[in-house]
Design brief:
The model has no long low-confidence stretch (mean pLDDT about 95). β5 and β6 form a beta hairpin. Strands 1, 2, 3, 4, 5, 6 and 7 form a 7-stranded antiparallel β-sheet that branches. The chain has helices at about 1-15, 50-60, 65-75, 80-90, 105-120, 165-175, 185-190, and strands at about 35, 100, 125-130, 135-145, 150-155, 160-165, 200. By secondary structure, the protein is α+β, with helices and mostly antiparallel strands. The radius of gyration is 16 Å and the shape is globular. It is about 35% helix and about 20% strand.
């Protein structure tokens, strides 16, 4: 019974975030592209969460926070969930406050990303990414948004930069990109371990 209730709630939340975002293309606010430069790629060797934190740290001028240093500190990966990733961002970057925003409506997500990039901060994101032919739950770092040209730029710690359209981006933040999601992930979303349409805003 609890499983059915959890899946029912998840379905409602998923419907609520799947809003029409087409108005952003006509919104004067988004006419200017926003981007963050000077971020070096970190190809993950231990975890995507640690790699994103290392990318953010290096961009912020801190070369001590690395994947290896984080793993050495904890002896394990502590960023497997959104709440844990948010907690570690706040732990590593005391000069800022990182806030996890989850289950955002599509246009809310776009606006938060735009505002953060305009303020000079890259945006960590929880989304679906391909590793070979397999979809995975993954963390990456958004560094650019050009709405008029339908372009989102993401540093993917699998080792490459992605440039994709808004629709594909939202298909992946909502995890609709999965053709067939493994049961453990479905249960994770249903019971609130993982989140959809989630970004981490640093201020």
């Amino acid at each position: 019974m609890a499983v059915l209730v959890a899946f029912g709630i998840l379905k409602i939340r998923t419907v609520r975030i799947s809003t029409d975002f087409s108005s952003v293309y006509e919104n004067e606010k988004y006419r200017s592209p926003v981007s963050i430069s000077g971020i070096g790629m970190v190809k993950q060797e231990i975890s995507c969460g640690y790699a994103v934190i290392e990318m953010f740290a290096k961009w912020n001028g801190n070369t001590d926070v690395t994947e290896k240093a984080l793993y050495g500190k904890y002896g394990k990966i502590v960023t497997s969930t959104g709440n844990a990733f948010d907690k570690e961002m706040n732990r590593q970057f005391h000069e800022y406050t990182t806030t996890m925003h989850k289950y955002l409506k599509n246009e809310e997500l776009i606006d938060l990303v735009y505002e953060s990039l305009a303020a000079g901060f890259p945006v960590p994101v929880e989304w679906a990414a391909l590793l070979g032919d397999e979809w995975t739950l993954h963390y990456s770092l958004i560094t650019g948004l050009d709405i008029l040209n339908d372009l989102v730029t993401i540093m993917n710690p699998y080792g490459y930069i992605e440039e994709i359209g808004l629709q594909e981006f939202l298909n992946r933040t909502s995890f609709e990109a999965y053709e067939k999601m493994p049961l453990f992930l479905e249960l994770g979303f249903a019971f609130g371990i993982f989140e959809k349409n989630t970004v981490f805003i640093v201020e």
